[in-house]
Automatic annotation (TrEMBL):
Residues 100-248 form the E3 Ubiquitin ligase MUL1-like domain. This is RING-type E3 ubiquitin transferase. GO terms for cellular component: membrane. It comes from Goodfellowiella coeruleoviolacea. It catalyses: S-ubiquitinyl-[E2 ubiquitin-conjugating enzyme]-L-cysteine + [acceptor protein]-L-lysine = [E2 ubiquitin-conjugating enzyme]-L-cysteine + N(6)-ubiquitinyl-[acceptor protein]-L-lysine.
Amino acid sequence: MVIWGIILIVAGVAGFFMAHSMRRDLHALIGAETLKVAELGMFHSTAVEVSGPGGFRKVCEVIGAAEPGPNGMLVSELSKTPCVWHRHEVKRRYRHVRYDSDGRRHTSQRSEKVADLTSDQPILVRDETGAVLVHPSGLRSDAMEQVVSRFEPHNAGGGPSIFGFRLDNWNRDDTIGFEYKEWVVRPGVRLYVHGEASDQTGQLMFNRPQNGGPFIASTKTEEELRRNTTLLQKVFAFGGLAAMLGGLALVIVGVIQ
């Protein structure tokens, strides 16, 4: 009982940390200015005139349609879907064997992640006034459309292949098979982008804010994201409080007994 109480207390503390993170993200969304791409370009030009290139940073938001970046249209690895951005996930499903204290054998199915890879080429987001680059590194996105979800039984001839490389290290006797999932962002998808626009790389581009704030690309509106974030904050806050109180009660009862 004491152990379960401690687990609940730890979960409650984690809930409070998550609530604080949600609160920080909410304030970031509220405080950031939504700009046209041309307006962002004017801020950048003014900063370059004053202090030179490479020092411009501005946390803000833009809304526009996704377009291929400088490297052109991409093709997703699994479904070969034309897109501007894609992500793949592969999980290995395998048999887990354990023996209890009496030596009895127990077999169950488990899974482990083999690969979780995202294309790293910048994309363009274009509104009626122009286009700006968005780098996908560290980006939190709900704009992806799932185009693959399948399971393939284990093939003794080799492990899964992704991005052109065979993952033969996962070709094991206990392997049942591999789960493949793939998501893409097609050109033309409307995106709300929140992040830090900077010219540190030599060109104006959205990246993850240096202060650790949110970096988001979403098909939702800012108002929808605010409502969702507010709801999550309350869930984590009240859930964390309930877990902590329940954990303390269990610890107290366990100690008394």
